Hints:
By secondary structure, the chain is α+β, with helices and mostly antiparallel strands. The protein has helices at 25-37, 47-56, 116-130, 147-156, 184-187, 190-204, 217-233, 235-239, 247-263, 306-321, 357-387; strands at 13-18, 63-70, 76-85, 95-98, 110-111, 136-143, 162-175, 209-214, 266-273, 276-286, 289-297, 327-329, 344-354. It holds the Pfam family Acetyltransf_6.
Amino acid sequence: MPNTVPPKNRLQIKVRQFRPRELHRVFLTRWADLAEEACCPNVFQHPAFILPVLHSLSSGADCWLLTGEDRETGQLCGLGLFEQTRASKALPLPHLVAMRSHHSYRDGLLVRKGAEDDFFDALLDFLTIQQEDWFGIELGRMNLDQPWALKLREQAVPYGCSFRLTPKFESPAVDLSALGDETLTDRCSSSRRKSIRKNRNRLAKQGEIGFQLHTEPQAALAAAERFLELEHASWKGERGTSLLSDPHETIFAREMLTSFVTRGNLVVSELTAGEETAAVAINLKMGDWLYAFKIGWNDEFASASPGMLHELELVEAVRREMPEIRWIDSCAHADSYLSGIWPDRLVMGEGLLSVTTLARGTGKLMANVRKLKHWATERIRQESAEEVPAVN
């Protein structure tokens, strides 16, 4: 049976729009609860991440929160934080774009498990009937395999809307439930396993190898400081892109880390050689997902590839000590070194919700133009390569 639009007076959820500066303690508690109970966890949509961004990296002046609240209980069932834009490459009409910083690696909506149908009905009703300012919503860095995305695409149709999903790249990840009794090293090629053994031997010459997951607040924050120092001592510090290079970045990092550790969602992983830190990483936990946020390593141990050794050890430590975790998301691009050692992939891309006939047609046209441009660029590149004379 095809989906139908429910009568407005039967909508269980009410959608509200307001500025982030209007938040109060009760709402923040409900927001955090929604993030923990969402059908698809997203640590970058948690108030412990968003508020430090707003405090230090963004004024929030052009931001809007769209929330869906149960009319009877007041429970928060859905939420998205957006910025207004007059036009973009995806949609040259006024619309909402997911609010993000350069540290926000995943876009999306928070939707409470079990409330997907009701929230999307309320959201689509709001966008198509109750407001006239925006022609759609654009999400630029989202996991396209999330069930809520596929559900929204289906549910948008009877409202005369479309939710176009455009794959861009595959991000390395680990599905822990699929590993069974194997380790990641077991799944590597013989040449890769040989390389791993050599690197471990090189590191072991510097001292006994150790690995820890720091979750207790004092230990986790101390390890996080070691990460900040290592990152600043690396090429990122030289280029001025480390978190300690800019006061605003530093304030963001420390506020965010403190917020997550207070909630028990900060996991700092550390690879050591004797008394020295070889590599240390900031990981953020949400639901049954662990997000590998940032990693730094000691350049003194560069010949042992400490970053790669750390990521192998991380997976095994999480399997032993955090059985509730089902997925580890690298938050990395397809060309990351993790592609060679983490076996699974998350399809990342863009989502464009068009809520008028004009927006649907324009969004489709722009998507086709971008495809044509990509095809032409690749064609020119191939022809140029073919024209290069062979060197005898």
